[in-house]
Specification:
By secondary structure, this protein is mainly alpha-helical. Helix content is about 80%, strand content about 5%. It is built from 6 helices and 2 strands, in the order E-H-H-E-H-H-H-H. It has a two-stranded antiparallel sheet. Helix 1 packs antiparallel against helix 5. About 30% of the residues are buried.
């Protein structure tokens, strides 16, 4: 099996980008939402994505200050998977104009897809990390992202019935 290496910096920078894109998406979704409950959910998710970004930024700063880079030791198949997430981006093709044209249920479905992709990314990153602190942080964020999935799924059920 061919092994590839990604630095902690690279993997965490991708995680920061995911969180930053998520924050922007949920901010716009909240702004455009016509339903109070959905708006509150999007605002909460936006705030949590901002918290995740800060957590990853702090981790990156600590890792960079610590000196020599750690590496995520991963197989070629995992590299292909991670590269596809990086290249396509979980928010690829989703901009403010496209969100305006979508129903609330469709925006919730995008949120679900994004959260699923984020969980997959963080799961792979956590499994491959050689940095105990990075693994611990990824584990905590995975649990929060799973909670996001449940929240969005529950709201989508309501949205499909009501609007």
């Amino acid at each position: 099996m061919v092994m590839k290496f990604l630095s902690d910096d690279e993997v965490i920078t991708v995680a920061m980008n995911l969180e930053q894109e998520g924050r922007g998406f949920y901010d716009e979704a909240a702004r455009l939402s016509k339903h109070k409950e959905t708006k509150e959910i999007f605002n909460k998710l936006r705030d949590e994505e901002a918290d995740h970004y800060k957590t990853f930024k702090d981790l990156l700063d600590n890792i960079q200050a610590a000196g020599p880079k750690g590496y995520f030791n991963i197989n070629e198949e995992a590299v292909s998977y991670l590269n596809s997430l990086i290249e396509t981006g979980v928010f690829k093709g989703i901009d403010k104009q496209s969100i305006k044209r979508l129903s609330e249920a469709e925006v919730l479905e995008i949120g679900l897809k994004v959260e699923r992709d984020s969980v997959l990314y963080y799961n792979e990153a956590q499994k491959m990390s050689t940095n105990p602190k990075a693994r611990e942080i990824m584990s905590k964020i995975i649990e929060i992202e799973k909670e996001h999935l449940v929240t969005l799924t529950n709201r989508l059920r309501v949205a499909r019935r009501l609007f």
